[in-house]
Design goal:
Keywords: Membrane, Transmembrane, Transmembrane helix. This is Glutaminyl-peptide cyclotransferase. It holds the Pfam family Glu_cyclase_2. InterPro entries: QCT, Quino_amine_DH_bsu. One of its GO terms (molecular function) is glutaminyl-peptide cyclotransferase activity. The strands form 5 sheets. Strands 16-17-18-19-1-22-21-20 form an 8-stranded mixed beta sheet, with no helix packed on it. Strands 2-3-4-5 form a 4-stranded antiparallel beta sheet, with no helix packed on it. By secondary structure, the protein is mainly β. The N terminus is likely disordered. The chain contains 1 helix and 22 strands. A hairpin with a 2-residue loop joins β14 and β15. It has a single domain, classed as TolB, C-terminal domain (Neuraminidase, 6 Propeller), CATH 2.120.10. The protein starts with 19 loop residues before the first helix and ends in a 6-residue tail after the last strand. The longest helix is centred in the N-terminal third of the chain and has 22 residues. The relative contact order is 0.16.
Length: 286
């Protein structure tokens, strides 16, 4: 249900505008009081507003992306793009040449799987599945299936910082998992200005923070891993320009970070392009 907008209160006209004597004395008193307070307390400090702010972005360049790929997971490792795609009977694991968008290696998942988030961890690729409760572990060079890790609930997004892994399930909860047996070590609830943020989808760990697509929107939230606070929000409205559309696009989904070059890439389900973006943190409001 849409919230009703409150009508702005109109200020009454100043009936004394034609009589300077009635407003001049109060004005002088107010100015004097202000000077006294300033002298007493010192100059006003710039106050940074609590909670998150909206970051801005610009597209640096765009690369071809398979418009048939229902993107669920995305990552860059050693300059190579890896992608997990979804839908039953269409799910896959892919190695993609980033510059050309050409799929260099492709593995179809069993038809019972709906591919989800993807993470590179210590020489292996770990691919989540939506409702099967299984994370599939592969050799990152050959895509040979090495083992299966099991978990409860749904699998959506997966990322990590090289030591710990964190997983989303479409709710407001992020679960940190043991890298050996995938057991839950701890969990945090994600909030923004005290309100929960759910529908957390694809994840990427960028410079000490967890970035998450918010399913069904063009937003990415930046999360502090220790307490789940959202400290930034990136709205990617306008990313998909008219000339980039193919008519089959679904939601924005997919964040990849190249730790070597600091480049950030985003795309969406059935998007025709992968976008490299630069982001700018909002200026403090004072």
């Amino acid at each position: 249900m849409a919230k009703k907008k409150k009508n702005k209160e109109s200020k009454p006209e100043n009936e004394a505008a034609s009589s300077p004597a009635k407003w001049l004395v109060p004005l002088l008193v107010a100015v004097a009081a202000g000077v006294f307070v300033t002298l007493l307390l010192g100059p006003k400090e710039t106050v940074i507003a609590a909670g998150s702010g909206n970051w801005s972005y610009k597209v640096v360049q765009k690369f071809r992306h398979d418009p048939g790929a229902y993107t669920q997971g995305l990552l860059v490792h050693n300059g190579v793009l890896y992608e997990s795609t979804g839908l039953r009977g269409q799910s896959s694991l892919r190695r993609v040449d980033l510059m050309s968008g050409i799929v260099q290696q492709h593995l179809d998942l069993d038809k019972r799987y709906f591919g989800e988030g993807l993470h590179f961890h210590r020489g292996v690729l770990i691919q989540l599945t939506w409702q099967a409760g299984e994370a599939l572990v592969y050799n990152n060079e050959t895509f040979a299936h090495l083992r299966t890790l099991r978990y409860e609930g749904q699998g959506w997004g997966l990322t990590g910082d090289g030591n710990q892994m964190v997983m989303s399930d479409g709710s407001d909860v992020l679960r940190f998992r043991n890298s050996s047996d995938f057991s839950v070590v701890r969990e945090v609830k994600v909030t923004e200005n005290g309100k929960k943020v759910d529908n957390l989808n694809e994840l990427e760990w960028i410079e000490g923070r967890i970035w998450a697509n918010v399913y069904g929107t063009n937003d990415i939230v930046m999360i502090e891993p220790e307490d789940g606070r959202v400290v930034g929000r990136l709205k990617l409205n306008g990313l998909l320009q008219r000339e980039d559309r193919n008519g089959r696009e679904d939601v924005l989904n997919g964040i990849a970070y190249d730790r070597a070059t600091k480049a950030i890439y985003v795309t969406g389900k059935r998007y025709s392009y992968l976008y490299q973006i630069e982001v700018t943190e909002p200026k403090p409001r004072g």
